[in-house]
Amino acid sequence: MNEPGTSVDPNDLTPAQAWRKLREGNSRFVAGSTDHPNQDAMRRHSLVDKQHPFAVIFGCSDSRLAAEIIFDLGLGDVFVVRTAGHVIDAAALGSLEYSVAMLNVPLIVVLGHDSCGAVTATIDSVKTGQMPPGFIRDLVEHIAPSVIAARRNGIHDVNTTVVEHVQQTTHRLVEQSRIISDAVENGNTAVIGVTYRLAEGKAEMVSGFGVL
């Protein structure tokens, strides 16, 4: 494990090693024995001119889902992209492609969670046929294919639908981005789907593309 204040070069980590590092941090968080690494002044100064994140977390914007906290990480460890319901739009996809093409990040994590409000709103809209106002409608329209796929498989509860949505999102990332799909095919990057349980604080992998 890296000591606080040291940098992590993503070229030194395989996708499997990056995922193991995240799992270890999450285990510390669940156990209440966090290290709070890379959060001191030395680390801050070392990152002024460069960054070497070892993973990118594409997660929901929910306030209970702070990636650096639940994986016990610090400054410069992960590149974080967040939208409500981890909805893929042009800005999110461009940010993820940047992390792969420019920062050589070996692991993309799609991070969903139980009791997701965006997924709940989409389930309600699919059930009632009523769309929410403003740009919330745009979120619902992006999540609706996952909800419909879940219903087709007999899934109607929110938390299991979240798992389906995470799985669908990992698939769409690889399908829609040539940069990401090439990195996965070349073995440089893996894309995994992870769900987080709010009560326990535990993150578990539910889907993946690439070698781990």
Automatic annotation (TrEMBL):
Its EC number is 4.2.1.1. Keywords: Lyase, Zinc. The keyword Zinc applies. SMART domains: Pro_CA. InterPro entries: Carbonic_anhydrase, Carbonic_anhydrase_CS, Carbonic_anhydrase_sf. It catalyses: hydrogencarbonate + H(+) = CO2 + H2O. Pfam families: Pro_CA. Catalyzes the reversible hydration of carbon dioxide to form bicarbonate. Belongs to the beta-class carbonic anhydrase family. PANTHER family: CARBONIC ANHYDRASE, CARBONIC ANHYDRASE 2. This is carbonic anhydrase.
